Amino acid sequence: MKRFMVIVGLGIVISLASAQAGWAEMPQRASTTVARYPTQQSEIRPTISWHTSLESGWAESRRRNVPMVIYITTDPCKYCNAMKNDTWRDRSVQQDLAGDFVAIELSPEQNSSTLHRIKIDAYPTTLIGVPEGKIIASRQGYQPAAAMKSLLREAKHLIINRR
Question: Which residues are the signal sequence here (predicted)?
Fold first, then answer.
């Protein structure tokens, strides 16, 4: 029985490592391209366009007059990959983002000069910023879909009360 449990456990570890390797093997994006997280593995057309530079995302935020969700990640981070696979692929999170926010993904590998100005203590970090350039909310570490929905609702509430 113990041998069977060890084999099953190894199978789970290998399958999780394979899933994470899929994100690591993705080609690197230039800072002006748009990253996308599809809602399902087989889905071709994603609903969220992710800016990979703060400047382009902030410009869209000002143009549309909507807040920004700034997701700060790094390549060798299992919790960042878990958020990419779970949280950002959740349909309800995607719906909230698509309608009411500009999504921006930053990483030290692609945005070192921008992130040099921001003190990041943990990966992943999620920030909510307003078009004027002020950060109004933040969360460190892995955020499951329900926690992200709560953060997005909280941000909308803060923004409505500011007006």
Answer: 1-21
